[in-house]
Specification:
It holds the Pfam family HEAT_GCN1_C_2. InterPro entries: ARM-like, ARM-type_fold. The chain contains five helices and no strands. The protein is globular and about 35 Å long. Helix 2 runs antiparallel to helix 3 and helix 3 packs across helix 5. The protein is mostly helical. Helices cover 64% and strands 0% of the residues.
C-alpha cells in the first residue's frame, strides 16, 4: 500500500498502523504483520510528501513503543532480515528517537472520518 500512487492511501495506512500500535498490546502483535508493516513504514519515512512521512514516523514510534522503552523495538528488529533491520535501525537513530521524545500531539490522533 505504501507504493500506491495516492498520498491519501499512504497516509491512511500509516495512521491505521499508528492506531494499532497504540491499542493492540505488544504481546498480541502478530510477528507476520510486523514483518510486513515495519518495512512499509520505514519506506514511508523516506517519502517526499510531508504528511506521509510524518504519519509513517508517528506510526513507527507507536508500533515500536519507543516512548515505553526498547523491548518492543528489539523484538521487531529480531524479526526482520538484515537489510530491513539496518534500515529500521538507521531511521530509529536519525529520526524516531527525536519524535518519541516530543510530547504526543493532536496530529497523531486518527480522524474517524477517514474510516467511516
Amino acid at each position: 500500500t505504501m507504493n500506491h500512487s495516492s498520498n491519501e492511501v499512504k497516509q491512511l495506512l500509516a495512521r491505521v498502523c499508528c492506531v494499532l500500535g497504540k491499542t493492540v498490546p505488544p504481546q498480541q502483535m502478530a510477528p507476520e504483520l510486523l514483518k510486513l508493516v515495519i518495512p512499509m513504514l520505514v519506506n514511508g519515512t523516506k517519502e517526499k510528501n510531508s504528511y506521509v512521512k510524518a504519519n509513517s514516523e508517528f506510526a513507527l514510534v507507536a508500533v515500536l513503543r519507543l516512548r515505553f522503552g526498547d523491548e518492543m523495538t528489539q523484538r521487531c528488529l529480531n524479526l526482520l532480515d538484515i537489510g530491513a533491520r539496518e534500515s529500521l535501525s538507521d531511521v530509529i537513530t536519525k529520526v524516531l528517537r527525536k519524535v518519541a521524545n516530543q510530547p504526543e500531539g493532536k496530529d497523531e490522533e486518527l480522524d474517524d472520518t477517514l474510516i467511516t
